## 1
Amino acid sequence: MKIFLFSVIIIAFVVLLLSVKVIFSKNGRFPNFHIDGSKAMKDRNIHCVIKEDRLLRQKKKKNTRIINN
């Protein structure tokens, strides 16, 4: 029982330390570590896989409409 209580206290302390920035910051959000959140990647026109896939699907759909007409 002592080990369980000690583990819960340690986990609660770690969660509190990890959330300090989110709780006390003005914005109250976690930092964006996604590729689209990086200015350097935007400048190089590099996107995440999901956005690249969406853009390619839109391009493909647009090309098939041109061919079918």
## 2
Amino acid sequence: MSWIRTVVLVVAVFAFALAGCAAPAASDDAAQESEASSAQTTPEAEPEPEKIVSLGFTGDICLADNYIPMQHLAELGSTSIYDGIDANYIKEMRSVDLMWVNNEFAYGTDVEPLEGKEWTFLADPKNVKYLNNMGVDIAGLANNHTFDYGEEAFLTTLDTLKGAGIPYVGAGRNAAEANAPVVLEANGVKVAYVAASCAEYTIYTPEAGEDSPGIMWCYDDDTMLEAIRQAREEADYVVALPHWGTEHSTELTEKQVDSARAYIDAGADAVVGGHSHILQGIDFYNGKPILYNLGNFWFDGYDIDTVMAELVVNMEGDEPAVDVVLLPGTQSGAFTAWAPSEQERDRIFRYIEEISGGAVSIDTKGRVSAA
């Protein structure tokens, strides 16, 4: 029977050898499963947000109770912004990342207008709610109507906007505040706003002093240029906002052309102007847009064309890339209407091309490019 014992011994040794070889394989599978499980539970790093920001701009807005837009609402017995501005515009204003408007009036009560000034605009401070209704993120005060009712109403204007959570630019209790860029951030992009005015032939609106309230002037560009240089150090994208030009004229002044280019040379990425109460032309300088005047948006009862301008800024490359888009409409009878048809949109686009002297072309979607 010795041969039987020999066979059993051989089988036993062979089985043990097989078991020894299989064990490492099972261990490897477990290790792989453990590694896979570990990989699945390790949180992935969140992707960097796209550094793209949309900036909205309109022309002049007036919420004064003694002037046409608010009188229009009063006649209707309405307190709804939708009875003054088309719902399509309100939707667009609220949808952009940062919305700027020109606040061309003062807030206050029980104050008297400046002596000798023909046009003066005063709003009850509660009217600031309409800016909130529009989705306004920043208001420009460097214009020729923020001081219409003197220092008391001017300071009330600053306090009213601050109380409504709306930063203002181009005005302040002193020069340090009035001349400072205002930097806002959206989608990881820091945007600086710099605003100044040179709109008055007879000066009623004071320049802010070391210890006195007022606005930033740009009759002489030295202060404006210094503010732009400061903004360039603080922000990714810089917008210069001058209040300038000839009222009710599409003809540009030499000052507008020269200063716009100087602002860009100093570090501005875009120039967006106001004051003329009608649209003026558009140009590009060193690849950067100049919108000389956005005119009125909701300001009076004139029958005029208007636009909301949107700058879509992409900061993902080495240099900012910007798409300029115009949203056309009309102001008529104290109501600002969205252009109702492709024909009307096209009419406004071709008109802007004309007053721009052929410097730009505008496609059917409102995108502006150098001609």
## 3
Amino acid sequence: MNAPTTPSTPLPESGAETLRPTPGQLALAQKIKSGEMRTADRTMTVRASVYTDPAHFAREKAALFDRMPQVIAPSALLPAPGMSVPHDGTGRPLLITRDKQGEVHVFLNVCRHRGTRLVEGDKVQCASRLVCPYHAWTYRLDGALLALPRPETFPRLEKREHSLIEMPSCEAGGLIWFTPKDSADFSEAMTLGQDFAAFGMGSAHLFRRKTHSVAGNWKLIMDAFLESYHVTRLHANTIGPFFKDGITSGDNIGPHQRSAVGRLEEMETVDLTDMAALRKVVTFAYQLLPATIIVPSPDYVNVMVLMPQAHNHTLVEDFMLIPEEPATEKAKAHWERSWNLLDGGVFASEDFRAAELGQQGLETGAIEHLTLGTLESGIARFDESISAALAAHK
């Protein structure tokens, strides 16, 4: 779904430096201004079974979620050194930390002594040490084993050999990526990070965070953000009236899609090299393989991390990033209205509900394939990217 221009009450300027679009972002804006659209010239199809077949889902999990670099959270979740948060949504017990040097780590949330879960819950914690609740083995936030009770009872134990098990990870442009695979190439994450830094995500404040449970295949959720055909219809009672049909352009960064929709009549007098001005007339959206959606609105950004649990069940963690922590009740109320409109209304009640209804229909076997028009070509390209990843994993 290309994000619409939603009603917004202007806030006072914070005095932050002017952000500039990347060359790729600027190129898409200029294509829109010239009237160049990215669209298909034919009707396309996607097999219905890729949404309903548990065996196909198992292949996706092995080829995508067990191997590829993927977003786990925005940097704003851990804004300062000395913070950590457990994370179980990927199907493995993880622990994200930011050590005293400010570096991010992603560990298995498992004590190296007897395998006990190290940190419980799902809330962000502020502590310089991680203490196992069973025998009090203690670790630094960089994973090193710091101390253990009665060390004399562990003769010849080398503490450096008992650090927490770390997953490869990367922090770029305000996003934290990780992969379960030992050898990882984060070059595309670094490239994308330049785009997200241009939105100010690296210094953003986390306003709200919520996890949704959706009874639908993960790709049905991604599909809603890969086309604009549904916006004025599905969202007729929320953001639909504020959505202005415009010219759409897009490109790819590796297997990831970047799209932009612009309102041509408003672009003539706008300085496209000023990101704040550009975001008022051009709406960008990012669909990252395997399963992350970035939706920058004119003054905030939604980061949605999809975590498939089964072929027909997906957890979606939605993060709302704003430029800075609200300094007044008026500012807080402003952001609360935006959060309630999108997360509580548009996403949960409309997009996610549509995914559930789609799953219910496809599970009947009534149709063998989805039929896609020219405004839905992003779905077909996404299906092709998944197919290529599955083929490479054979």
